[in-house]
TrEMBL record:
Subcellular location, principal: cytoplasm
A Gene Ontology molecular function term of the record: translation initiation factor activity
Record-linked PANTHER family: TRANSLATION INITIATION FACTOR IF-3 (PTHR10938), TRANSLATION INITIATION FACTOR IF-3, MITOCHONDRIAL (PTHR10938:SF0)
Matching PROSITE patterns: IF3
Comp. bias regions, Acidic residues: 191-210, 228-244
Gene name, Swiss-Prot/TrEMBL: infC
Name the UniProt record assigns to this protein: Translation initiation factor IF-3
InterPro entries associated with the record: T_IF-3_C_sf, T_IF-3_N_sf, Translation_initiation_fac3_CS, Translation_initiation_fac_3, Translation_initiation_fac_3_C, Translation_initiation_fac_3_N
Biased composition (Low complexity): 211-227
Keywords, ordered alphabetically: Cytoplasm, Initiation factor, Protein biosynthesis
Compartments in which it is found: Cytoplasm
Amino acid sequence: MPVPRRFDRRPPERDTTRVNDRIRVPEVRVIDENGNQIGVMRTDEALRYAQQRDLDLVEVAAQARPPVCRVLDYSKYKYEQAQKKKAAKKHQTQVVVREIKFRPKIADHDYATKKGHVVRFLKGKDKVKVTIMFRGREVTHPEKGREVLERLVEDLGDLAQIDQRPNLEGRNMTMMLSPSKAVINGTWEPPSDEDDADADELVDGPEATEADAAGDAPEASADAAPEPSEDDATDGDGADEDVPAEPAKADAG
């Protein structure tokens, strides 16, 4: 059975600007296409003045006495206003608040995972509400939750700034973080700990290579001139004695 179609019963949006014949007042104050004020005119005369120039008579100040009308191209005017509105909306920054929850006895692995989420939110220029949830008698030790929040702020470094200090409300302790000015301006760079680690590996690399080369040299010489073992000596002597042993047994038979 087909689903019945829902109709939008709301009336369509209508342009409430009075233009040309929709201006019903007997007289208006007219401003020409160049922005110069002409003065008060009868409405039919002002409309005729606009039509002679292939333009529209647009009411711009309905509350004035008499109302103020401008002579302009209304289609072009609407297009320009739409473009200005679009540009203003483009430059607006929408603030998004993310929330992430911790426990006062959180494990190191869970802490690292949640901290990674906070870093991702801040890099995305979102605010972060950090909440410590207390259960049972944990609420009697709020300092444990405060330690977690202080640890988080210290680990984030210059990535975040504190908008709201830790505040205990009921069984929850909350703190509000926002991205730092460096993140917002796009000048923030991650700490160079990884670069330092790579540099240490590069320093240790040649030393390890020389040590391996030094260690390989004795092994190579040992392979070239192996020392005879007791088993090898015994096998060698046995091989020398096996040659006359077989004829001796044959003679005895």
